[in-house]
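Comment thread on ticket #2218

A.B. wrote:
> Attaching the input chain for the structure job we discussed in standup.
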Amino acid sequence: MSQIQITTLDGTIFNALLAMPEGGNGSGLILIRGLFSKDDALLDLAKHYASLGFITVCPDLFHRQREDLEQTQHHETDWELAARLYKSFDVEAGVRDLLGTLAHIRQMPECGGKVGTVGYCLGARLAYLMATRSDVDCAVSYYGVGIDKMLDEMYDIRSPYLIHLAENDKLMPPSTQQRITTVLAKNKHITVHVYPCAEHGFARKSSMAYNPELAAQANERTDSFLKEVLQV
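C.D. wrote:
> Ran it. Output below, let me know if you need it in another format.
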């Protein structure tokens, strides 16, 4: 595990974690954290995806909110702070940073060319936007808050996209989920899985909503999806 720097077209420079697969070569994967993702949890995820053969890069998309973010490292249940971070996060700037990350990975001599992305919570929304606004080869979203406000972009998705939704997600009421599943079903490139009785964060081990059985099911689907699309 190492740290690298990424430069975007507008000159923005930010840090990113890099986990290389054992063989040293492979397809790329952009790992997009959520607001409550601790560094140790990120390391575990990055190592897992690297073990599957992916050059895994986790960009620090919250570098503009560094002071507040450090507080969330120690307050996993501070929803007031999370709401403030979410509201102040510059989504468009985040997408630009991700586009820079995508370009960086594809220019790495160890990368075979294909790059996917996996995002959690706010990161899931960004993974969705990478599916709609970039030529990323595939994308995965776990309980993506805010996707319902951007469903019109769904028609721009031309590569495989997998989304996991929690049936009892308090940040995404049933009516919103129904709208999301109905609209996304119109695009043949999109696969939606809804997990009964699951709550927001069900796949995050540090979450009070963590559900080992459902997390395993979702993660197995993600791993198989990435291996198939990225041909690892």
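A.B. wrote:
> Thanks. Noting for the ticket: The first strand starts at residue 2 and ends at 7.
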